[in-house]
Amino acid sequence: MSRSNEPTPINLVFDEPPQKKKPPKHLADFSPEERREFAKENGLPAFRATQIANHYFSHLSIDPNTWSDIPAEMREKFAEIFTPQLITLVRSVTCDNGMTRKDLWRLHDGVLVESVLMRYTERTTVCISSQAGCGMDCPFCATGQAGLTRNLTAGEITEQIVAAARTCASGELPGGPTRLSNIVFMGMGEPMANYKAVMRSLRNITDAAPDGLGISARSVTVSTVGLVNGIEKLTQEGLPVTLAVSLHTPDDDLRDTLVPINSRWKVKEVLAAADAYAEKTGRRYSIEYALIRDINDQTWRADLLGRLLKNRNAHVNLIPLNPTPGSKWTASRREDEAEFQRILESYGVATTVRDTRGREIDGACGQLAAAELAKP
């Protein structure tokens, strides 16, 4: 984007991986109060931070030439201080007649991340990345196969969202201008392993203008593979976002392999933390379940999952696996998918099969970045 346009130790879960050079500070890295202090540290009146935040969050503007309430001779300086360029668009690919668009972004240090914008009849959703790569090491996931490069800053996360909102407002998607209505933290990375930056990003999303985008917390989904300490912290934040738990199997034996963090927190511990979140927030949580042929799609696993969830405030999203090139993992047969859903519903568990958008554009997280890195 141009201006014009062994188990993981618990005490390491929220640590920042080493970086050679940190990204420049951006107003989205700070709380509203911190933004004003940042302005004063740079020799500017505090109210200038609020003005720039209003341009950024309310008007989605990163072009200082449009900042009419800022003296013309100061606009470029203010832009350099408050809104330095953090992400640059490498390329976009589309499918579904243009209604699904995947963007590949290059960060200041050359790292690549992805976001996906999806327009539906009743909403427009962006799926964003919170890390470059992922350290959770799930073997069926393209991002997990790549490993963790580094955490993203709150500014880098927020920039993906603001860029998507700008795309919607400018009418670039078929159907004309629309409003970005939903954000899901289901792109590259484990959000709970980058907790501080993700929380700042959530505040940027939900704070009212001019301090944020003013999007309801109920329209935001935060996923996790089951970092219980992260779920417990989120429970105390007072942000009623939708919690999505990537469970993928109800039994610990298989989950230790599919989701290695399970060696730290077992299925029952993860569900107990999710139950506590639901009780505190009043929000039903989501169980994400990627159906993998002959691995986790057996009827006995559906039966076990149904028994585990039948009295819980949970909804199951069955996800036909989007296989990655060269992977031994592939999607379940349609008849097995249907039977799995039938069994869950027989226990009274609300279940849907997720719309598998983006298959023809390397829709699984990490595939587009991997393809770019593989170029000569």
From TrEMBL:
Region spans: Disordered: 1-33
Pfam families (UniProt xref): Radical_SAM
PROSITE patterns: RADICAL_SAM (PS51918)
InterPro entries per the UniProt record, alphabetical: Aldolase_TIM, Methyltransferase_A, RNA_MTrfase_RlmN, rRNA_lsu_MTrfase_RlmN/Cfr, rSAM, rSAM_sf
Keyword Cytoplasm: yes
Entry's Gene Ontology BP terms: rRNA base methylation; tRNA methylation
Domain Radical SAM core: start-end pairs: 120-360
Alphabetized UniProt keyword annotations: 4Fe-4S, Cytoplasm, Iron, Iron-sulfur, Metal-binding, Methyltransferase, rRNA processing, S-adenosyl-L-methionine, Transferase
GO cellular component terms listed in the entry, alphabetical order: cytoplasm
Cofactors that this protein relies on: [4Fe-4S] cluster
Localisation: Cytoplasm
GO molecular-function term, one example from the UniProt record: 4 iron, 4 sulfur cluster binding
Protein name: Unannotated protein
Lineage, highest ranks first: unclassified sequences, metagenomes, ecological metagenomes
